[in-house]
Design a protein that fits this description.
The chain is an alpha+beta fold and 67 residues long. The protein is built from one helix and two strands.
């Protein structure tokens, strides 16, 4: 059995894989056109935009594909 995750700090490999898989599933089944999210961190707010289209003037190469 895995130890419980710490509430802060880096994600474990298992947590990162779960995040990736859930994000992919959300985008495949829940995302319509776009979703704008904001979350607070110890370094200040983070803004996340999930979209089915590239922002105008942006190349697909500007995005990393680590998954």
């Amino acid at each position: 059995m895995n130890a419980p995750a710490k509430p802060d700090g880096l994600l474990s490999k298992t947590e990162f894989n779960q995040f990736r898989d859930l994000r992919r599933r959300y985008c495949a089944h829940e995302l319509d056109q776009r979703e704008s999210l904001q979350t607070e961190t110890t370094y200040g707010p983070v803004y996340v935009l999930l979209s089915r289209s590239l922002p105008p003037g942006t190349s697909p190469e500007a995005y990393r594909r680590p998954f």
